[in-house]
Structure formats: structure tokens, C-alpha cells
């Protein structure tokens, strides 16, 4: 065998990890660029493509097939009252699972009822790992059961990721701060806030972001402008009645999710108020509901489908690396975006319209 042939045999083809290292990004980001996914910054896409060209990297279909030869079974335990949120989450997860030759087993449960039994049912069914979207991501009982069983787990959209568990989130506090700043930049100073479910850690972060933005502007959060909510449309109706029934109602309302924001708009219309002329309303999540109502909702875009895709990819990597990822813990924080549509405007300078 000649020396040249020996050298060629020893030459190792570049891997996706080599591309990620050269570009200074995660392997997941490289995968998104290769697959042509939209949720990648253009500057990042250019950097990754430059690294691919420099290394002469080419995805290997045979290697992908081999990696997926042993199909991974992933459990998804859910108890989310928002059908719009769940729909986007399932679309993202199922899409990534089909690309990765994985099977997703969906199990529904009710918090405080039989979430532990549902988790144990998935474990008994032989799942390799589990994804916990909100609100199950914050169930201490479920997390303890999974940790004790040694099941690789990804918690999604929790405000407090457990140690040694995988997590995919956005910065809820900063996103809520950005929305509150946006309303103040329009001229609003009396801004109502509809809280999320107190059992979810992300709810507290969104409230903190709202309060932090007010404090930055030298404003004190008025307790009467903060209404309880449960992330449901029904709770949004009750919160809106409370806020809009005040002697001095807010000129803007920021709800901790789109379902509750839609309810606020409905109550405003019932009271004869124009949105956004008399009342600006903003939400959080950017689910399909945000563009299905009138006026279309200004909201924080939480990349729900992308978070689900990332959680599937992260979990499969941990499973195929025999849990090494989950032992050290890995926390991905994805970007949010403030999407402005038609439900917000500067406060009206004349008296509000009345029924």
C-alpha cells in the first residue's frame, strides 16, 4: 500500500461538531442551517455556511440512517389548557421526530390528579426519554419520579430548570420587560397586567419583567392594576372585568399569554371600547390565536414549535450518548421577538368612548 493511499485512509471526514466548533455555534444551529429552517439569524447562517465551505463538510445520508437505526421512543406528557399552544408544540415535536427516526408517545394528564401515574405509565411503556412542556415542566412530583427512574428529561419553558436536566426556554423576564417598555414608549403609564398561572415558574418571571420595566421608568406597580390569571380564556375574561371596572381603568393591558389577551379584547368590545383607540392590549406567545382575532394581537413571539424541535433533538442526542448530556445538564435559551400588529396605539387624548 502506498504512503498516499494510507494518508487518504487516515483522513477523517469533518463532522457536524467540527463545523459547529469552527463557526462558534451549537451543533443544533448547524443542523438548522443545513435543513433550511427559518429560525436562524442571517449573520449566523452566513457564518455556518462559511464554516461548511471551509471544511468541505457534506451531510452523510448513510450515517444519518445508521444513527437512526435504533428508533428512539420519546414520551410527551402534557396538561396545557391552551389548545393553540399545544398545537404548535406538537407540530414542532412531531416534525423533528420524523426527521430523526424517533417515535413520540403522547400522554395527557391533569396536574394535581394523576400526573405521577401518567409519568409512570410512560416509563412502564419503555420510553427512552421524556419531554415536559408547561405546566408539567414545573411538577416537582413528576420530576422526582423521572430522576429516580434515571429517564433523560427535557423541561420546556420552565422558569427554573432543575440541575442535571436538559432545558429549552426563552428569557421570560426580559421578554415581559421589553413589552412593558414598548407600551411606555407609546405613552402609556397606567398599564394593567394579567398574570399567568401561579403554579408555573415562568409566570413569576413575566410579572417580574413587567414590574422591572415600570421601576426603570420611575413608576410603582399599582397592585390594583395586577389581576390574577390562569393562562385560560375564562380567567382572562374575569381579569379584564376586574381591570376595566376600576374607577380609573388602565389605558393598556398586557396579558401573560395570548388566550387571556384575546379575552381582554372581547371584554373591551363588550364594554363599547375601541381597541386600540380606547385600550391597547398585548399578549405573549404568538400562537395562531394572535392573528385569528380582531384586531390582530401585538405579542411576544415565543418560538414554540422551534422549542419543541430543539427539545426532541436535545433529548435524542442525550439518549444516544447514553445520558452523558443529561448528567451534566444543558440549558438552551432561544430568542424571542416582539411582534407588533394592530392592538396597540398611543393612549387616546380625549375621553374614552362609552357604551
TrEMBL record:
One of the record's GO molecular function terms: DNA binding
Domain HTH lacI-type, chain residue ranges per copy: 14-68
Highest taxon of the lineage: Bacteria
Gene3D superfamilies: 3.40.50.2300, lambda repressor-like DNA-binding domains
Segments forming a coiled coil: none
PROSITE patterns: HTH_LACI_1, HTH_LACI_2
Pfam families: LacI (PF00356), Peripla_BP_3 (PF13377)
Protein name: LacI family DNA-binding transcriptional regulator
Keywords: DNA-binding, Transcription, Transcription regulation
Amino acid at each position: 500500500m502506498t504512503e498516499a493511499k494510507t494518508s487518504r485512509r487516515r483522513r477523517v471526514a469533518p463532522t457536524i461538531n467540527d463545523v459547529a466548533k469552527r463557526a462558534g455555534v451549537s451543533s443544533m444551529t448547524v443542523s438548522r442551517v443545513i435543513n433550511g429552517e427559518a429560525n436562524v439569524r442571517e449573520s449566523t447562517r452566513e457564518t455556518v455556511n462559511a464554516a461548511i465551505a471551509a471544511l468541505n463538510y457534506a451531510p452523510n445520508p448513510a450515517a444519518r440512517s445508521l444513527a437512526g437505526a435504533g428508533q428512539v421512543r420519546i414520551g410527551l406528557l402534557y396538561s396545557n389548557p391552551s389548545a393553540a399552544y399545544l398545537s404548535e408544540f406538537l407540530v414542532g415535536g412531531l416534525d423533528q421526530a420524523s426527521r430523526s427516526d424517533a417515535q413520540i408517545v403522547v400522554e395527557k394528564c391533569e396536574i394535581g390528579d394523576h400526573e405521577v401515574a401518567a409519568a409512570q405509565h410512560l416509563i412502564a411503556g419503555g420510553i427512552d426519554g421524556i419531554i415536559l412542556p408547561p405546566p408539567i415542566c414545573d411538577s416537582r412530583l413528576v420530576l422526582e419520579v423521572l430522576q429516580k427512574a434515571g429517564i433523560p428529561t427535557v423541561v420546556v419553558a420552565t422558569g427554573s430548570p432543575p440541575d442535571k436536566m436538559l432545558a429549552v426556554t426563552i428569557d421570560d423576564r426580559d421578554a415581559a420587560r421589553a413589552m412593558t417598555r414598548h407600551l411606555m414608549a407609546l405613552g402609556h403609564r397606567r398599564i394593567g397586567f394579567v398574570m399567568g398561572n401561579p403554579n408555573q415558574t415562568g409566570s413569576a418571571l413575566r410579572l417580574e419583567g413587567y414590574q422591572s420595566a415600570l421601576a426603570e421608568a420611575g413608576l410603582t406597580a399599582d397592585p390594583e392594576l395586577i389581576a390574577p390569571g390562569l393562562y385560560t380564556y375564562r380567567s382572562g375574561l374575569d381579569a379584564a372585568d376586574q381591570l376595566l371596572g376600576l374607577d380609573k381603568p388602565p389605558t393598556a393591558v398586557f396579558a401573560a399569554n395570548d388566550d387571556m389577551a384575546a379575552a381582554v379584547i372581547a371584554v373591551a368590545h363588550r364594554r363599547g371600547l375601541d381597541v386600540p383607540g380606547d385600550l391597547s392590549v398585548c399578549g405573549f406567545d404568538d400562537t395562531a390565536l394572535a392573528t385569528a382575532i380582531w384586531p390582530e394581537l401585538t405579542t411576544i413571539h415565543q418560538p414554540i414549535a422551534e422549542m419543541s424541535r430543539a427539545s426532541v433533538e436535545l433529548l435524542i442526542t442525550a439518549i444516544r450518548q447514553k445520558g452523558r448530556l443529561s448528567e451534566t445538564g444543558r440549558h438552551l435559551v432561544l430568542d424571542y421577538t416582539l411582534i407588533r400588529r394592530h392592538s396597540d396605539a398611543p393612549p387616546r387624548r380625549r375621553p374614552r368612548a362609552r357604551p
